[in-house]
Structure formats: structure tokens, C-alpha cells
Amino acid sequence: LRFTREPIEVGPFSFRDFPKERVNNYMIKENGSAELNFGELEYNEDIKQFVLDCYDKATRIGLDPENRYAYLTIDQLHVKAGESQRQHGWHIDGMQGIEVKEKKNPDFQFIWADNTPTSFCTQTFDMEGADVAKHNIFKWVGRQVKENVCYLLQANTAYLMNAYHVHTATKGIKPVFRRFIRLSFTNTPITSVLMTKNPKINYNYEIGTTKGEIPSHRSEE
Fold it and tell me: What's the whole-model pTM score?
């Protein structure tokens, strides 16, 4: 976070058949395997093509997606003016807190939205004194954000981001129906009770063991 970063544009993508399902961290690939298992999303050719395009991009630039878990989040919602579909607030994805005793190579994600794109902040952050065991890191970086160096991504375009890209869901200026997709590749299995289980996958770890929230013992500082 002491260095400036920007997400990588993968390219435009359009969905002829956007899935009706809403899923959260839905596993489609185990670690150490190249086999994709879409489970109840197997019928949707557009989703499968999106995943394959992202997988190919990650492979070509040497990110080694095969040895990571892969999870899909698909969300769609009517959003009121002045509100955001996803949780608003500056943050990073894939932070490894005290729950992850042995640190792994960081996550990376591909994101796409058909309108009201995600906002990213390109600046350096002072992390001197930050302690993930004591501090809410999202609030730590959020207080430092300078709005004049933030910008919106392009709609209907896939982007590659990593665990050090500070970003937030964007509040709309008018009511919209918004569709959003995130494809996450990680070495750290997701265990949250908020995740959607893929009935066609035999999970190689125990799921539903964490709340999926920032632990409350962390301070506001």
C-alpha cells in the first residue's frame, strides 16, 4: 500500500444471458486443479466464457490460477439513488488478518459491472504503525483517501485487481438495476457462513466456520 497501483483492463464483455441466480463466493474450482465445476450455473454459457477469458488472462501473465481456489460472486439488484449495490466504503479485497497464521501469496480478482462502476483510488498510503490485530485497516486507509486521485472504471468491462487496490462501491446518482460479477482466485479458502455452497463440489476444507466480517475486537483507529 506504500506504492500506487491501478487495476488492469482486460477488455469489454457483454452478457446475452445474465444468470438469474445471486451467489456469493461460490466455489467453481479447487486448489491444485484446472478443472472448473460450475454446478448449478453450468447452463450459462456467458458466465462460463467470462470465467475462461479471465482464467486465460491470469495464466498468460503468470499468476498461476491453477493452484488457487476460484470463487464466483454474482449480484444483481435495484439500487436507489444515493445508494450503492455493494457495501460502500474504501477497502481492499483478500486481506489476510490474524486468522491466517501462515501468510499466502495474495489474492487477485476479476470484476465486471454493467453500470455505476467501482471507484478506485491511486495513491500511496502511510501504513506506519498499522497492526491488523488491533486496527481496522479499511478505516485506516479510508481516512487517507484523496478524492481527487480516485476514478471510476468503465462499465461493461472486465478488470483485474489485486489485494492492494483500494476501492469502493459507487453510489448512484439515479435509480438503476445493476449487475455485478467478481471472480476471485485465492490460496486462502473462504470459510464464511455468507458463502453460497456449490452442491457439485466436494469441499476439501470445512466451510461455514467464520462470520465473513471484520472481527469486532479491532479498534476504529
Answer: 0.89
Mean pLDDT of 17-39: 94
Are 181 and 72 within 8 A, CB to CB?
yes
What 8-state DSSP symbol labels residue 13? Answer: -
State the CB neighbour count (10 A cutoff) for residue 43.
Answer: 10
Q: Between the CA atoms of 63, 68, 69 and 74, what dihedral angle is there, to the nearest 10 degrees?
A: 0
Q: Which of 52, 117, 118 is nearest to 91 (CA)?
A: 118
CA angle 123-156-28, nearest 5°?
90
**Residues, the chain:** 221
How many Å apart are CA 85 and CA 108, to the nearest integer? Answer: 21
- 70-117: pLDDT as tens digits: 999 999 999 999 999 988 888 888 777 777 778 888 899 999 999 999
What is the C-alpha separation between 181 and 117, in angstroms, rounded? 11
What span, in angstroms and rounded, lies between the C-alpha atoms of 90 and 168? 5
Backbone angles phi, psi at 65, to 5 degrees: -65, -25
Quickly count: other Cβ atoms within 10 Å of residue 27's Cβ: 24
- 8 A C-beta contact, residue 212 and residue 195: yes
What is each CA distance from 147 to 90, 114, 121, in whole angstroms?
11, 23, 8
